[in-house]
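Feature request disguised as a bug report, sorry. It would help if multi-protein outputs had a clear separator. Right now it looks like this:
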Amino acid sequence: MPTEPSTERDRVFRFGPFELSEREGELRKSGVRIKLQEQPFRVLIELAANSGKLVSREDLRQKLWPVDTFVDFDVGLNSAIRKLRQALNDDADNPRYIETLAKRGYKFVAPVADSAAAPQPISNVSPAGASGSLPTDGTKSAASEEIQRTPQRWYWVLAACVLALVSYGALVAWRRANTPPPLATERQITANPREAPITAAVISPDGKYVAYSDTTGVYVRHIDTGETRPLPLPSGFDAIPTSWFPDGTHLLLSSEETLYGFGPPSKSGIPSLWKVSLLGGSPQRLVDNASGGAVSPDGSKIAFLRSDAMGSAEIWVMANDGSNLQHVAQAAVPEGSTRAGDTINRVFESVFLPEIAWSPDGKRLAFVKRFEAASPGPSEDKHSLETVELLGGQPKVLKTSTHLLNVVTWATDGRLLFGYRNDPASERVDTGIWSLRVNQESGEPEGKEVQLSTGAGRLCGLSVSRDGKRLLLWRENLSPTVFLTEIDAETHSLRRPRRLTLDENSNIVEDWTPDSQAVLFFSNRNGTYKIFRQGIDQVVPEVLVEGHGLFQPRVSPNGKEILYLAGNNSQTPAQPVSVMAVPLASGPSRVVLQMPSIETFQCLRNPSKLCLLSTTERVYSFDPEDGKLQPFYDLRAPSVFNWMASPDGEQVALVYYGSKHKITFLTLPNNGRREVELPESLGIGIDWMPDSRGVLLTSWSTNGAPVVIAVEPDGQHRVLLEGDRAVQYLFAIPSPDGRYAALQVVTRENNVLMVENF
C-alpha cells in the first residue's frame, strides 16, 4: 500500500534583531549566525512558539527531555536557559526576551513574528502503472503518455525557477529594508589627557574646524591637518564655545559656568554670553544670566537659556548684537515639588533646559528638558526631547526617557540628532547617537528612530556642519575611583593617596569593615550595581551581594551585618525602597524594612543600636534587628543640602544650599548650634572622625585645587590634603581605627570625535 505523504514545515520566528529557523537549526542576529547548542535551541523554539504564554518546566521536560535519557533535568534546563540569555544578551533581573516565573516556568516576553513555508508533499512510492509494457487494447501506453507530457513538465519547472528567483529577490529586498544600516564609525579628533579634559566643542559651519575648550583655555583646530592654535582671550576670562556664527570667523562663548557638577564653583555663579572674533580683538558681552547659546542658521538671532535658583528654566531669543530680547518658552518645577524643601531631605525635584538647537529653517527650536531629583543611588534623571515654535506656543514632546541624554542638534536634512543609552538594561552610561526626522513646520516626528553610532562614555555635546556631512561630538568618561591614604599619627595630615580600585567603571566607596582592613563600595563594573568588599592590600574585590541597583553599603551598629539599599527607581518614586541586611561573614540577605522615597541612611556605632534614614519628608531612626521606625530629632530646616550624624549620635553636621563656605554643627542633647566659616568652597562630602570630635570635608581651595579639610565644632579647621586640579574629591571616609581614610576621587577623560557618512 502507498504511504501517506509527509510534510516538512519551516517555522521562522523573528524578534528584535534575531531570526530563529527551526528547519535550518540556526539563530541569527542581524544576519550573523550565533552559535547555539541543540538543547538550548530546542528550548528557544518552544518558548518562541508560545510567545506571551507560560511554558512550564514540566512541559519542557516532557517535550525535550525523553524519559529514557539519563540527564539531570533541572541542571540541564537551567544550563539551557543560561546559555540562551547569554546568546540573546538578556538579563534575568530585567528581561527583554525570557522571563522566569518562579517555581512555574518561563515566558517569552518579546513580540514574535511567526512565519512558515508552505508544506511540501514528499511521496515514498512511484506513480501507479509506471511500467514499459503496452496495453492489449491498442491504446497509448503510460510511457508514451509520459513522453508527451514532458514539454509541459519543463514549462512548470521553468515557472518554478522564475517564481523562486522572484521570491528570492523579494526576500533580499525585505531584508535590506528591515536590516538596520551599519553603525557609523566615530573617529577621535583630539587626544587630551586626563589633566586637560575637553569641556565643550562645536564644529564650524564649513566642517573644517572645531572650536573646543579644556581646563587650559579655548582652541581652534583644523580637523584634517590637526593644526591647533589658542584663541587669545583676556587673562582670567574662563569660557567655553557654544556656537559658531555663519561667517566662520566669530564664536559665541559662554563664561562663568560650572559644567556637569565637576570642578569648583564659578567666581560669580552667573553665566553670560560673549561674541569673539578669531581674527583678534576683545570679546563683546552680549547678555548676562544666559547660557547654552546657539546662533540661528542665518546668523541674525541667538537662542539662549536662563534659569533661577528654584530650578525653573526659560528659553529666550535675541538679536545677534544682544538686543530685542524675546521670551519663547519656560519649563517650571513640577507641581508639588521644590528645590529648597522645608525638611532636611526633601526630594529636590527641578527642571532644567541644558541644550537647545535651531531647525534648519530657523523657525523652530529643539531642546532637551531634564527632570532632576536628588537620589543617593545610581538612578538616572529623566529627559524629554521637545520642539517649540520661535513665536511660542505649546511645545511638542517627541520622546521621554531616563535613557535620553541632554544633547541635541538639528541637521539640514531635517533629522534631529540626540543621545541615547546603548543598553537600557545596563547601569552603565555608554551612549550612542540616534536620529529622528522631524517636520519643521509642525514639530511632529516623521518615521522611526534610527541608531547612527555607539561609543564608550557619556555623550556631552553634538554639532553638525552646514552641509550635513560631518557630525562632531565629545564624550565624557568619568571614573569614580577609590583611593587609600594613611593618616599621619603625629601631624594628622593625609599622606599621598594610592589607588585601590583598578578598573575604569564607577566604584563608590561607602564604609569600612569593623577591623579597618577592607572597604565597602558599590560598582557597576559587571553591568549592574552590586555590593563589593576589597581589602586594603588586595587588588581585586569580592562580590558580597549580587543583583541590580544595589547601593550604599553600611556596617550595622554591632558590626556583624552590612546594610544596603535596593529597589530605588527614579521613574516610580512611590515604589518601596528596601533596606536589606546581609551577614558580614556571608550568607543570605534579609529585608529589614521597606518604604517609599528613602534617600539615604547611615548607622551609628556601639554602644548605640540605631541606624538613621531620611525620606522626602523626615528623618527616622530604626533598629536593624526589627526594622521599626521612630521619629528622630527634629531636623526640619529650609534648604538643607547635606547632613551627617556623628558616630555616637549626639551631633549633626549639616550644610545648607547657598552656604558655599559655612558648615553648621548641632548638639542634640542641649540644642546647641555652632557655625564655622571656611575660606574654602565646600564640596558634597561630610564624614565624621571615629571619635566624633570633628568631620572631614571635601572642598576646593582658593586656587581651584581639591582639598580635604578637618573641621571641629569649636571652629578649628585645617587642610589635610590638596590634590591636582584635574581631579575632584567627593568624600573622605576615615577607618574605624583612625589610621586610614578611603578617598572617593573622580577623574575624567574627555575628547572630541567625528562621524561622517551618517
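(second protein starts here, but nothing in the output says so)
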Amino acid sequence: MPSYPISPEAVSLWLSLAVIAILEGLSIYTWQYRKEPGALWQVWLQASKGLWLLVLLVGSRSVLIQEKVLCLQISTVLAFFVCYLWFRFITDLSGYDRRISAPRWRTIRYGAGILFLLILVCAWRGWLWSSLHITNGIFHSPRSLLGNSMSLPIYALNAFTLWINTRWALRNAGLRRRQAWMFLVPSIFTWSGQIVSRVRGLNSIAPCAIGFCLSGLITLWAFHRWRLYSILPLAREVVVEGMVDGLMVIDDDGYIVALNAPTKTIFAESAISIGKTIEDALQAWPEMVCRDNSASAWETQHQQGDAVSYYQVTRTSLRISTGHVLGQVLVFKDITHKKLQQARIVEQERALAMMTERERLGREMHDGQGQVWSYLSLTTQMMRTMLAQEKYEQADQELMRLFEVVQEMHTEFRESIYGLQTSVSAGLIYALDGQLEWYRKYCKLEVALELHCEWRRGMLTPAGEAHLLRIVQEAMVNIRKSAQASRVRVIFERADETLQVMVVDNGCGFDAAKALVSVGHHGLVIMRERAEEMGGHLEVESHPGCGTEVRLTAPLAGEGWGDPLTIGQ
C-alpha cells in the first residue's frame, strides 16, 4: 500500500486544534466550581488561552498580510490579558489580594487596566512594531522601541505573579502546597512555549502549541489527582453520605433533588426518591407537616411498622447572593434515644418526688397522730376497769377527754385532707386564700391575706409555689394546735429580686431557739427543708407571750405574666 508522509504542518495543525479543545473543555469543566476561590478567573484564563492559541494558529496559516497583522494585534492583546487573568487567579486563590492594603491593591488593578488600554490602542494603531512585512513567505514583525517598552510591564507582572505563586507554595504544606505547585508548573510551560516560538527557526506554531498542551494536560491531571476545585464538593459529598442524620434537598418547585442514605432508610416504606415531590413525602409522613410555617425547626414522629421514631426536622432555605431562593434543605435528626432517656428521667423524678413527699407526709404527722390509736386502746381498757370498780365519775372524766381527742383527730384529718387536696394549679394566691378560708370557717380564726406587692403568675417556679403553699399550711397547723391565737396575718412583700412571706400570729409564743433543736418539732424542720429547696431560707421569731412570726425569704424566678392579682379577683 502506498504511504503518505504526514507533514510537520499537519501535525502542528492537529496538535493545536487538540490543545484548543482541551483548554476550552477545561474552561467549561471549571465553570461548575465558579463559586470556589479563584475558579472563575481560571475559567476565563483557560478560555483566553484557547482563544490565544486559535488566533496564533489562524495567523500562521494565513497568506494575507492584513489577516496576519490582525491576528498579531489580537494575539498581543490576548497575551497581556492571559497574563493579567493568571495574576488575578493566583492572587485570589492564594489569598494574597486579601493580605495587601486596599490602596496598594487598587493601584495594581488600575495600573493593569491603564496598561491594557494602552496596549489595545497601540496594537490597533500598529505602534508596537517598527515594520510589518512578508519576505520569502516569512512574516516579519520586529518590535519598535515603544513595543519593547510596553513589554516590560507585562514581564514585570508575569514575574510578580510567579513570585506570589512560589511564595504561596513555600508557605503552605500538604495538599495546599501540592496545589500551588500544580498551578505554577503549567504556567511555566505556557510561557516557555511562547519564548521558544520566538527563536529563529522555531517560530512556527508547534512550540507554542506544545507549551499550551503540556500546560493543559498538567492542569487536567491536577484536577483529577489533587481535586483542585472539587475537593470541597467532594468533602461535602462524603460528609453528606456519611451523616447519621437524614438530608433532603428540595428545589423551589417542590421536587426532591437529593437524598442521602439515612433519608432513604427513613422513607424506605414510602418509596420516596429523587424526582418525587415534597407532597409525596408529606402524604407518606403526615406528621412531618410543620403547623408554623415560619418555624425553622420542629419535632415530629414517624411510625415504621410497630416502631415509633422521633425526629427533629430543621429547615434551611438555599438562598444565593442575589436573594433568590433556589430551594430548601430538610435535615432529619433522630432524637428517639433522647426522647426515651427524657421519659425515663421524668419517671425517675416522679418516683423520687413521690417517695420524698411520702417521707415528708410521714414526718408531718408529728404531734401524736401515730400514737393516738395506742392512747385510745389504753384509755378504753382503763375505762372498763373503772366501770368494773364502779368509779363512774372518773370514767366520765376519761370519756370527756377521749371525746376531745377524737374531735381533735377529726379536725386534724379534715385539715390534712383539705391541705393535700389544695394545689397551685389555679394559682398560688387562690390556693392560699381558699386554705385560709377553711381556718376562718372551721377553726374560728381571724385570718388575713395581705399582698403588699404586685403578684403575677410565674414570679415563682411551679415547684417554688408548691413549697410555699406547704410552708404556710404547716405554719397554720402549728398555730391552730399550739399558739392559742385569735388573729393571723399572711403578708407578701417584695425586696428587690426576693419575695418575703410572713405568717404572724398573736398567740402565746414559744422559745424558738429550743424548739428548733428539741426532739419532736418536725414541723419547723420540714418548713426549713422546703425553704432551702426553693433556694431561700426560713426564720422564726417567737418569745413566750409575744406571739410568733415565721418569715420566708426566697428568690424570684422572674417578673411573671398576666395582670397583677389582688384578693377577691
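Even a blank line would do. Unrelated, but nice: The CA atoms of residues 342 and 492 lie 36 Å apart.
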